[in-house]
Amino acid sequence: MTQSVMARLRAMGNEFTPAQIMATRELYAPLVVRPEDVGATVERDVSYGPDPRQKLDVFHRGDEGAQRPVVVFAHGGGFIMGDKGAADAPFFNNFGAWAVRAGFVGVTMTYRLAPTHQWPSGSADVDGVVRWLAANAHRYGGSAQRIVLTGTSAGATHIAGYLAGHGRAAAVNTPVAGAALFSGLYRFGRDDNDPKHEAYFGPDKDLRAGFSTVDTLATLKTPCLFTLNENDPPAWHRQVAVLTEACVNATGRCPRLLYLDGHNHVSNLMQLTSPGDTLGEPLARFVRQCVDLES
After folding, report:
1. In a domain, 224, yes or no
2. Which of 125, 159, 273, 292 is the 20 to 30 Å CA partner of 151?
3. Terminal Cα distance for the chain, rounded
4. Low-confidence ranges of the chain (pLDDT < 70)
5. Half-sphere exposure of 202 (CA within 13 A, CB side)
6. Looking only at Cα atoms, what is the longest distance across the chain?
């Protein structure tokens, strides 16, 4: 079964298209675990801010005061679309199921979208979730001192911005224990011609360098895990190359990287909890290391 899935996945190639996304969804939707399958309690559409998009779902075991690590996930969507998933959706309920099965509290968040909301609204929404968890994590058995942020594509970019201080409330400093960034974007410049990026960052390309986070990420003390998929489009491979060069120049070391064989830009998270899942265990190990539960 696993070999068949990977063969079909590789056959889709690295062209990031609606057809590839749909085919990947159809491949993994029957394979992933539901929250109820792991005994998770789910509180859905909790508001962490006044905007209708500022909602989150919490996946937990109902053991208030347990001090479990809290793992937050921010979806992708090119800054202009995407969602945490409805109650009946396979994705990203599989993230919540993975978190609970691993012994964590899982949180999936939705954030405001461009062009209505531009930079740094996405990172500001990550900050809003962290501040909400600082006050509420204990209600779900989580610890506000054990928050690990994760996100994919635009979601990873928003988390990188949060780590760099973009959109973060100056009066509040809730440190996170770590961050895992899946195929994010970390450098922007005048050569960036993606219209989705213009929707979020605005049309003035002379400002783009100021939105980059690569230099901050290269010297950040917060533990970070970066992932790249074999069949990510070339733009994402270039981003990891830039990040790696910056880290080596700044610290003499490569960043902590996880290369996901065979996977494309959306299958990395869609595979979570499926047979042959290659992300779940290394991600759980990273979270445990961030919160000193594993050496």
Report:
1. yes
2. 292
3. 33
4. 1-2, 170-174, 295
5. 13
6. 52
Q: What is the pLDDT of residue 175?
A: 82
pLDDT in tens, 226-259: 999 999 999 999 999 999 999 999 999 999 999 9
Lookup result for tokens 């209708």: 52
Task: Give the H or E element holding residue 99.
Answer: helix 93-101
Rounded distance between C-alpha atoms, residue 58 and residue 105, angstroms: 7
Q: What is d(CA 11, CA 44) in angstroms, rounded to the nearest whole number?
A: 36
Number of structural domains the chain divides into = 1
**Can you read off the two tokens belonging to residue 14?**
């690295």
Burial class (CB in 10 A: 0-12, 13-18, 19+), 10: middle
Helix, strand or coil for residue 222?
A: coil
| 138 contacts 64 by C-beta, under 8 angstroms | yes
In a domain, 137, yes or no: yes
What is the predicted pLDDT for the residue at 119?
97
Q: What is the domain-level CATH number for residue 11?
A: 3.40.50.1820
Query: Quick one: tokens of 231?
Result: 């069949």
Find all residues with CB under 8 Å of 42, minimum gap 6, and list them.
35, 57, 58, 59, 60, 87, 93, 96
Domain that holds residue 16: 2-290
Antiparallel, parallel or unpaired: β 224-231 and 257-264 = parallel
pLDDT digits (tens, 9 = 90+) for 92-132: 999 999 999 999 999 999 999 999 999 999 999 999 999 99
CA 153 – CA 169 distance, rounded (Å): 23
The C-alpha atoms of residue 50 and residue 165 are separated, in whole angstroms, by 22
The answer to whether position 40 is within a domain reads: yes
Residues 6+ apart with CB under 8 A from 282: 225, 258
Please check whether residue 103 lies inside any domain of the structure. Answer: yes
CA dist., res. 283 & res. 269, Å (int): 11
